[in-house]
Amino acid sequence: MGRFFDDMEVRPRLRREEDNNLRLSTMIDSGYRHSKRVRETLDKLELKPSDIASTSDLEKLPVISREKLVELERREPPFGGFSSENADIDRIFTSPGPVYEPHLGENELWARGYFAAGFRKGDRVLNTFSYHMVAAGLTFHEGLRSAGATVIPSGTSGTETQVQLIRDLKITGYTGTPSFLNAIINKAEEMGYDFKRDFDLGKACFVAEPLQPSLRIRFEEEYGIDTYQMYGATEVGDIAYECSEKTGWHICEDVIVEIVDPSTGKCVQPGQLGEVVVTRLNDIFFLLKFGTGDLSSIVEEDCACGRTSRRLSGIAGRVGDAVKVRGMFITPGQVARVGEAFPRVRFQVIVTRESYKDLLTVAVVEDEEYKAIDDERFRDIFSEICAVKIDRIETVKGELSDKDKPIIDKREWE
Ligand SMILES: [Zn+2]
């Protein structure tokens, strides 16, 4: 325990819910007074601020996608009416779109994420995110500083410079994308170093790019680097982070996450896949229900680390790539994970509709590799990862049709 793992993170869930409801009401009240957009949205739906009194009331409001935010900001620069005229804003970032994002003073949130990843005073951390205009560099810098670490703002310097910094400054930690760390390690080896023996870099915290399981194994087992992931979006800041249990990402304390069925806008059950929709509790930017476009599900079970927040199961894919089968979304990413369990088996998912019912068929190339696996185990692992059962397995001789597509949706909609 410490400043960034405190009573707040271990409070009973009911307490957190009550606190969040209270803070949400305050945000809605303030938003109604200060943000033209909030006032318009509520008025149009004939809602009073007091009608949004708890997190479950958020279901009454629309999800705002990134595209919608860009459009509103373009029409009404800089913040699309989501902020008040005279809000006390520390700085304004921009990202492609363009979209303008006021900094929401979230150092403590990211500090909790870095703390959970083991970053402390005494660490020297390479921050390889850009510091120019975009939020990442400065924001993570301050999160690391709050957690006590010394930061080297190496930003987008080339891999050779990064290797030199790791060597000369005895760097102990890395933050950036997994692919860039991989490139740095490759460069170091090319320069003749033994990364594990010659350097002190023993922990890494990744954001902005998914960490492939095979790359995680490589970092941890081959190079002795303890790896962690954080999840955020520039529009709302930090959303969730991994703890040492590495069994899902804890939802941040200032954040309300809804997992929403993108076709209906309604929340789905825990364990079911849906779009991650985020409301960041704050008094500057009244962006309610920001739709990230990412698919995830909620993990309800308690975490062994002691934090009582609910967790996200990780990112399963993007909304546009998902196919809904019997009310459940399945994504190419999930199908790929099934593939990792049966690496040499060639298969694809085909969804059809018969007698008003969705039918999930797996087409498999009938070769020696397929004959060598246990059919039942394949079905079990498939339904465990995709949360949908296979209706039938169809063997194919030769090649799969459209073999680069992991999922083919053959249903026709009237
Ligand atoms: Zn935990």
Q: What would you note in describing this structure?
A:
- The chain folds into 3 domains: 11-102 and 235-321, Rossmann fold (3-Layer(aba) Sandwich), CATH 3.40.50.12780; 107-232, ANL, N-terminal domain (Rossmann fold), CATH 3.40.50.12780; 323-409, ANL, C-terminal domain (GMP Synthetase, Chain A, domain 3), CATH 3.30.300.30.
- Helix content is 31%, strand content 24%.
- The protein has 13 helices and 22 strands.
- Strand 4 (124-127), helix 6 and strand 5 form a beta-alpha-beta unit.
- Helix 2 packs across helix 3 and helix 11 (332-341) packs antiparallel against helix 13 (375-386).
- The model has no long low-confidence stretch (mean pLDDT 93).
- The structure holds zinc ion (ZN).
Features:
Rossmann fold, GMP Synthetase, Chain A, domain 3, 5-stranded mixed beta sheet, binds zinc ion, single chain, alpha/beta, 9-stranded mixed beta sheet, 414 residues
Question: How far do the termini sit from each other?
Answer: 57 Å
Q: Which small-molecule ligands are present, each listed once?
A: zinc ion
Shape: globular
CATH topology of the largest domain: Rossmann fold
Helix content: 25-40%
Main sheet? 9 strands, mixed
Low-confidence stretches: none
* Strand percentage: 15-25%
Brief summary of the model shown:
The chain has 13 helices and 22 strands. It has 414 residues and is α/β, with parallel strands linked by helices.
